[in-house]
Write a structure and sequence with these properties.
There is one protein chain. This protein has nine helices and nine strands. By secondary structure, it is of the alpha/beta class. It has a single domain, classed as TIM Barrel (Alpha-Beta Barrel). Strand 6 and strand 7 form a beta hairpin. Helix 1 packs parallel to helix 8 and helix 7 packs parallel to helix 8.
């Protein structure tokens, strides 16, 4: 079947996209803060034990993020005055309230990211998914004290009904479709896609490709430099997608900080959140 979720739109044929204060690139950090069930296989560094219950090797590797890595990450974001766009599992509100408190103090943007990263929506019918999504969105809104506007599915998963149900729940944008360097309309009235990245993403780069920290830094710089060059013609979005249990282990942290310093040191960069990107596009650039 053809993709009916959104229409084809070549980037060279669109009206010029502008950002506040004449910025060229809108940059945000997509910070994945997740909870994993101890008896289900999930993101793993070693597949040989992933089906065990429990799986200390992989579960402990993931759990490092909320126990240690997130606090190292927070220091780096604070240093460069970057507010995180948090892709939040609703279970985090109950499991790790200290992280929620730290984010509230920093006025982070909060996006719904499923209940936990061991549960996907695949196979749910529309009524089951509506109940599931409402519970996720309501829990995060109550826990953070903010209305939720954005969505990223665990492992970027959806059903064909997800955007419509999310719009019914008051959300305005999704990140799951990594198809563009600019926001674009979804064929659900009032719903848009905001760029995310499955490649400029520490899961893909470190776990998928086993790259070094130095290689990670160079890839982030190369991504930014190309978008910055193209943004002389029309604005671009760069998402840096991170997981504290991966990039914020001690031997990688300095490369993250080096990359943030490089981007934040450029003029014409809007250090922002995905919420603010979506709101600006919906207000100023949404096709009529």
């Amino acid at each position: 079947m053809d993709n009916r979720l959104y229409d084809y739109s070549p980037i060279v044929s669109r009206p010029r996209l502008t950002w506040p204060n004449g910025a060229r690139v809108a940059f945000y950090v997509g910070l994945n803060i997740e909870h994993y069930q101890v008896d289900k296989p999930s993101t793993s560094i070693f597949g040989g034990t992933a089906m065990l219950q429990p799986d200390p090797l992989n579960y402990g590797w993931r759990d490092y993020g909320v126990r240690v890595g997130i606090w190292r990450m927070i220091e780096a974001l604070d240093r460069y005055k970057i507010r995180a766009s948090v892709l939040l599992n609703s279970a985090v509100c109950r499991q790790y309230p200290q992280i929620i408190d730290a984010g509230k103090a920093r006025k982070w943007a909060w996006l719904a990211h499923g209940r936990d990263n061991s549960t996907f929506e695949a196979g749910m019918n529309a009524d089951e998914e509506r109940q599931y999504l409402k519970e996720v969105v309501d829990t995060i809104a109550a826990g953070t004290g903010h209305s939720i506007r954005g969505w990223l599915g665990p492992a970027l998963t959806e059903t064909f009904e997800t955007p419509r149900i999310l719009k019914e729940l008051g959300l305005t944008y999704i990140l799951d479709w990594c198809a563009d360097d600019q926001p674009f309309p979804i064929n659900v009235p009032g719903m848009i896609s905001v760029p995310y990245s499955i490649e400029i993403n520490d899961v893909s780069l470190f776990v998928g490709k086993s790259l070094s920290g130095e290689a990670f830094y160079q890839i982030v710089v190369d991504q930014f430099d190309q978008l910055y060059k193209e943004s002389a013609q029309s604005g671009r979005v760069m998402a840096l997608c991170l997981h504290p249990f991966i990039v914020s282990v001690p031997f990688r942290q300095k490369y993250l900080e080096k990359a943030l310093a490089y981007i934040a040191g450029h003029e014409g960069v809007w250090l922002t959140t995905s919420d603010e990107i979506a709101a600006h596009y919906l207000t100023h650039h949404m096709p009529k």
